[in-house]
Structures are given as structure tokens and as C-alpha cells.
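#struct-pred

JT: dropping the chains for the assembly here, can someone run the whole complex?
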Amino acid sequence: QVQLVESGGGVVQPGRSLRLSCAASGFTFTTYAIHWVRQAPGKGLEWVAVISSDGRSKDYADSVKGRFTISRDNSKNTVFLQMNSLKTEDAAIFYCARSWGSSAYPFDYWGQGTLVTVSS
Amino acid sequence: QSVLTQPPSVSGAPGQRVTISCTGSSSNFGAGYDVHWYQQLPGTAPKLLIFNNNNRPSGVPDRFSGSKSGTSASLAITGLQSEDDADYYCQSYDSSLGDSVFGGGTKLTVL
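RK: done, full complex below.
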């Protein structure tokens, strides 16, 4: 069955870095784009970033552009989110989700999420 | 402030019908981009509920339906059940932003 498993969350001080991972299984990884979506405590969903199936195309929300970098290793069926210069407002549950093709397509499977806490 | 606007909350009694609106603009729904809906039960990840305006993934009951017209979309739930008590989000693509966008979410309370 399709599975997306996030890891790498934790407590980090403002200004520091963290790298999240999203390990995929149960489907042909190289045919899907992967997104990161976050949810601050008690708030709604916010799209963060997307990487195309071949890794050549990437896009970011304005709120993280220049600080976050998305990448993927298709040999390991894993997507990464490198988060630098973290701010307190980046604290959230981070979910990875897959979509067929571009960002206009639905996110049909989601991981369970990993919690990022940014606090001094 | 979300690009897609949803009411913060709706409620209904068991067995009733409720609708959740999602208002967009000429750069998303009006430009022809589809709406997708997600259900998030308390403490869990979002789950795809409706895709491409009015299609249900396998396993989603036909009590859930969606529609889109012009710059607005809506999710209808008939025969409300206690397990429908959840947050619901609409999502689309916005050509002005060049990004996926979500509505602010609607909390459905089954009375």
C-alpha cells in the first residue's frame, strides 16, 4: 500500500537549521511530484514546497523562499526539506504528500506528519 | 488571509445536509483550475475527499459531493453522521501565485 513517512522533526532554536525526510513506498516514486504542507498549531494548512517527479522543477511558498530547499533522491525513494534560518513562525506539523503531475493535481496520499518546534 | 475563502464553522444535526462554500477568484477557479477537498479528523493527517470538483476517491461514501461554478465551489454532505465531525479544506492552483493554495478550513460540528 502507498506510504509516506516523515521524519526529522524536533525542537530547534530560532536561526538554526533542520532537515526533514519523507520516505515513500508502495508506488512508483519516480512518477509523482512530492509536496510539503505545514500546519501551525490550531491553524489551517499551508502549502510549502513541491518538487517534480524527476527533481528538475521546484517551487516554494513566498514565506519560505530563500530559506528552505526541497530535494529528492529517487534511488532511495526519499524527499528532503532543508530548512535554514528557522523562525518561530515556522513551528508546525510538516506533512509530505504526493500528486500526479503539477501542483494543479490533488494530493491523494499524505504522510502522518512530523512536528517542528522553533523555540529558544 | 487565504486566497480561497471558507466559512470558519458550520454545524448540523445527524441526518441533515450541510454545505461548505469555498470562494476563489479569476486566477484560480475562474481560470478553470479544479477544486479538491480534504477531510482532517482530529489529530490525523488530511485525507483526500473530493478531487477535480466532483469526483470521489475509492472508499469515500456517496454522501459527500462537490461542485464548482464560476469562482466558487462547494462541498455537500448529506445524512450527517457523528464521524463527519472534522475540519474540511478546499484546495486549488492559483495562476497569479503559481502555487497550490488552500482555503482557511471549515470546522464541521455534528450536533
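JT: nice. Chain A has a mean pLDDT of 96. The radius of gyration of chain A is 13 Å.
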